[in-house]
Task: inverse folding
């Protein structure tokens, strides 16, 4: 599995959010972005003495969606190993998509708010916060998962539980590994009795039973099919079935 290239997660987020290479607000004016489930918040110093409060919110995945995501992730042993090792490989995004949701939100999912007096959304302070948030995803991609509602430790615990419950598919070593199955006999009779049925013998204390008792229960049946009694019609078939 290829490792994530530097800047991968920030690039994915900025592209999905519709932010290109426009003017960059000074990064040192943005505080560390605090990420919680569904919300990212920061303070941005602008022209006023008091920093502006900035929030960017996204929908969190439902418990049902997260259960599906965890099952999809746990099915890929290599991805699980990387997640438990503390990294988030790029393949996670595609596995999340199999559940019908997108890990990296697009612009339509972002609810943005800033305390500045500007009317435009996003304003310069929001754009600066989004860029700072993107950089934080490169530093710790688990923040992106947390933003969608699942913290690192809970996700790791769920993956450990799911992988432990998954049945092993390891093929046992030994002489049986290369065993070629025998071909099936050419007839049903040979399948049940073997290739040499004449060698079969009944034990002395268990002689073969009369093959007719079942059909005799129909003796005297009043059911008539095509002017023939049902018992007479079934007798040849029953004899064929019990003859071997």
Result:
């Amino acid at each position: 599995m290829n490792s994530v290239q530097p800047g991968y997660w920030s690039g994915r987020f900025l592209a999905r959010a519709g932010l290109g290479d426009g003017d960059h607000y000074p990064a040192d004016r943005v505080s560390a972005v605090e990420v919680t489930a569904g919300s990212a918040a920061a303070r941005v110093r602008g022209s006023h003495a008091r920093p502006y409060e900035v929030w960017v919110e996204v929908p969190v995945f439902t418990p049902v969606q997260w259960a599906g995501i965890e099952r999809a992730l746990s099915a890929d042993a290599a991805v699980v190993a990387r997640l438990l090792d503390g990294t988030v490989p790029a393949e996670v995004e595609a596995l999340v998509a199999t559940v019908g949701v997108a890990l990296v939100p697009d612009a339509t999912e972002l609810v943005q708010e800033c305390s500045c007096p500007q009317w435009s959304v996003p304003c310069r302070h929001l754009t600066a916060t989004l860029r700072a948030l993107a950089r934080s995803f490169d530093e710790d991609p688990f923040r992106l998962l947390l933003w969608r509602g699942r913290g690192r430790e809970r996700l790791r615990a769920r993956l450990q539980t799911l992988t432990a419950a998954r049945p092993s598919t390891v093929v046992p070593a030994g002489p049986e590994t290369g065993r070629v199955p025998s071909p099936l006999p050419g007839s049903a009779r040979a399948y049940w009795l073997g290739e040499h049925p004449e060698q079969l013998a009944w034990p002395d204390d268990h002689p073969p039973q009369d093959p007719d008792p079942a059909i005799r229960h129909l003796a005297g049946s009043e059911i008539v099919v095509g002017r023939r009694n049902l018992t007479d019609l079934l007798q040849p078939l029953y004899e064929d079935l019990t003859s071997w």
User: Anything to note?
Assistant: Residues 202-206 have pLDDT under 50 and may be disordered. The longest strand covers residues 39-44. Residues 212-244 form one domain.
